[in-house]
Amino acid sequence: VGELQVPERVPPLLTDLYQFTMAYAYWRAGRHDEHAVFDLFFRDNPFGGGFSLFAGVHDCLLFLRSFRFADEDVEFLRSVMPPDTDPAFFQFLRCLDCSGVTLHSVPEGTVVFARVPLMEVAGPLAVVQLLETSLLCLVNYASLVCTNAARFRLAAGPKRKLLEMGLRRAQGPDGGLTASRYTHIGGFDLTSNVQAGFLFGIPVAGTMAHSYVTSFTSLEEVWPQTLSAVNGEHNPVDIISLTKGWLSRVCDLLGAEPGKIHEGELAAFLSYAIAYPQNFLPVIDSYSVGCSGILNFCAVALVLCELGYRPVGVRLDSGDLCKQSLDVHRVFRLCSEQFSIPAFDSLIIVGTNNISEESLAEVNIGVGTHLVTCTKQPSLGCVYKLVEVRGRPRMKVSEDPEKSTVPGRKAVYRLIDPEGHPFLDVVCLAVESPPEAGLPLSCYPLGCNHTALSVTPARVTCLRQEPLCSTAETRAKVQRSLQTLHPRHKRLQKPDSYTVSLSVQAVLNARVQTNLVLH
Amino acid sequence: VGELQVPERVPPLLTDLYQFTMAYAYWRAGRHDEHAVFDLFFRDNPFGGGFSLFAGVHDCLLFLRSFRFADEDVEFLRSVMPPDTDPAFFQFLRCLDCSGVTLHSVPEGTVVFARVPLMEVAGPLAVVQLLETSLLCLVNYASLVCTNAARFRLAAGPKRKLLEMGLRRAQGPDGGLTASRYTHIGGFDLTSNVQAGFLFGIPVAGTMAHSYVTSFTSLEEVWPQTLSAVNGEHNPVDIISLTKGWLSRVCDLLGAEPGKIHEGELAAFLSYAIAYPQNFLPVIDSYSVGCSGILNFCAVALVLCELGYRPVGVRLDSGDLCKQSLDVHRVFRLCSEQFSIPAFDSLIIVGTNNISEESLAEVNIGVGTHLVTCTKQPSLGCVYKLVEVRGRPRMKVSEDPEKSTVPGRKAVYRLIDPEGHPFLDVVCLAVESPPEAGLPLSCYPLGCNHTALSVTPARVTCLRQEPLCSTAETRAKVQRSLQTLHPRHKRLQKPDSYTVSLSVQAVLNARVQTNLVLH
């Protein structure tokens, strides 16, 4: 599993101070080794959608494996905790690790729904408390950006190539790496982030920026000025004069004014084509797409075709991408017909200007800011709630009913209908026997705990299994699970809610607890 | 300077692939060593505000200092670039560093405005091109979150304590560290992030979560059950019976029903108070603030006062913080008067539920999600544009006029009015002599390049200076610069625009370039 070779990134101090103040209070009261269980879940699917993808599990495992305080960590804690803190507590910290902790988790990349317990972390009270912030930090953004990527993939359909290029707008270097990694798992094909390719094996892509184009002023800067045909049969040809010839024919075809064509742009395209004759995909809007960029592109691409190369396409990075891409397609078709160059029919158009989910349907690929920052909802509210201590269920009964928790250790089952679509998740007590295929099951949908529902699954899967598999397997699994999800839950706007329910036992248990809590 | 000891975080592969494909095309054309200059700037102040803070400069310096490709980096690049790439290019990469690069930057934490060139990066064309994405990644989020923090500080006023606690909602571990670091520079006092305290010396704070409270069920779990007075004069007292006495008096005073009080919550508060008698600040809404939390708090706090300790206050984490904090204040006042305990007048209330800029005016401190994710605008669009090559000005003339750049090397001056308020930034050509105090200056406000403005500064400062100073100095400077800024530019909603202008020379130069570009 590739990820497990990534250097450990999460120091045990990367957590909130209150985890330590609580750990000390537990330790002081002699409660630190009491067996405790926390549930991790979120309360709403992001982006107004009907589903989420759970991600970050691998990072959580790595974190747990390496969790141990160094001397310098403990010394720092000593310096920030109150001076009357018992020194023996710091000795206790120095010896902690996660050997007594068990993690049950929904596997990386699983389609999940709000309010389902996704992870159960069990172990000594002080230790599992200390893990809270780090685990939340590792799953919250990973799940959010993975879900965002899956929504872009749904909007784009299965065939178009999607490139993530958000590094410069991410929350710093590591935010950018996390984005590249989990958007790939969520359904993106490529990233511009070279380090992400290096660390995670994600295919990388990229061609040129405007600065490359504007750095050229004249054809004299093109060097070498020759290019050999792809089969190498003939001597290198004078590419400048060849290009001038094609440019003039393109201008005639399109009725363009040669005087408005920018020579520096042509020089930039030519230099790039000489360096990458098989990977020609320039950005064509540094000056004017219609008056210069598209003409220069066609001239150079036609030269490449004449020499047996296959130009790839163009990138558009400003203005109305939808309208421009139609114009550009029209030019490609004209050239293809007029010059009998069928390669021009398969040229691609890449749009990269401020692409959002809504605009994606109109252009081709390349998403930055809206993808990595998750503009529509920049955070996922995963929480970590205590559900059991010393074998006794615990719950929080909040003034805000939505914030109340489901007490006790639980198992989660996904019920599948005869067509293979999952239709209901049921949260049972861990001690209950699992629902069985073909047998009716009574349960209470969350949010309306007083009306029982009877359902008969065609098949039942247990949601929390061994979470380890490779990035490639996870990425494939994401698409497979999204395919089984019924389209009504996948609609990007106003989807039908997927039902998450509690078993009868879980509801009874929660009622008993609520009464205990409220007396 | 503390930051310079932080381990290098930005590997040179953490950039977009197109930087390498462009570098290769430059190298192939023999242009890689041409002297080039890039400007870094953004086009709009974030959050609809009238100003921004520029941050991330230290990280950029660290990045430049350590910029060098290892063998494994170069081997990875070889594996992703086209197979016909000249092998000598990889040898060239292996020897690159930033020794030929100069950075002129607005100092860390400076108040800045849209469209002012904030950094000028000059050096060999291929090298300065390679730096683009990493520099943008380092300044974009740092500046955004620093600006966001400054806005929270403006909304809260200078006196209230502001705690950043967004780690769990940040873009992964390093996103969280960056947030803690730059919100502190922007005006926050404290962070919950222990690693940020460890690495950057930011004061850390935190007390307890709901899970701590809900982990207790009865007073039997309190241990030890005694506490000594702060002066140690008397024997440890039986804190349980002392608390029960105070709780009964508090219930009488407030007309509360003792039957509704949650014993587990009282046990949790007592255990915490025994561990931290000088730092008692519990979260009081795990069950019900009015029926349980506030009563338990008052009882334990009164015990602490009786023993000579000084309780700190309470934390509210759900519901209507504004209304609840008024109710809680009323209870504190009643206790203070009734029991003659003046310490109750200075108890603080900390609000931590989903605090945004707008809600901040009503409660006390503690901001997470909205701060670190910059919900109102989750990215800053800093860009990096080529402005000169081989001593010749370059510009991009876009279809979108807002995307056109100002060509040539420039200096930026800030003009100060007689009251000490900065009132206008002027971008001049680097070769021009600077504006002088008391002398009228003609310039063109950006966005209306055809109407000249004549202004006479009382004082002139040069905006781009040596950028190194410590975090503490930077943090203080932020508040000083914000103080000099006129209130009309500091309004959080609909501020008056600050004028950014071009010198006459810069405009003439841009016109010449535009004509050259457009023929």
From TrEMBL, chains A, B:
**Residue span(s) of domain Nicotinate phosphoribosyltransferase N-terminal:** 13-140
Q: Which reaction does it catalyse?
A: 5-phospho-alpha-D-ribose 1-diphosphate + nicotinate + ATP + H2O = nicotinate beta-D-ribonucleotide + ADP + phosphate + diphosphate
The protein's GO terms of the molecular function aspect are:
nicotinate phosphoribosyltransferase activity; transferase activity
Give EC number(s), comma-separated.
6.3.4.21
List the top taxonomic levels of the source: Eukaryota, Metazoa, Chordata, Craniata, Vertebrata
Annotated pathway: Cofactor biosynthesis; NAD(+) biosynthesis; nicotinate D-ribonucleotide from nicotinate: step 1/1
Kindly provide the name given to this protein in its UniProt entry. Nicotinate phosphoribosyltransferase
Keyword list, A-Z: Ligase, Phosphoprotein, Pyridine nucleotide biosynthesis, Transferase
Q: Which organism is it from?
A: Astatotilapia calliptera
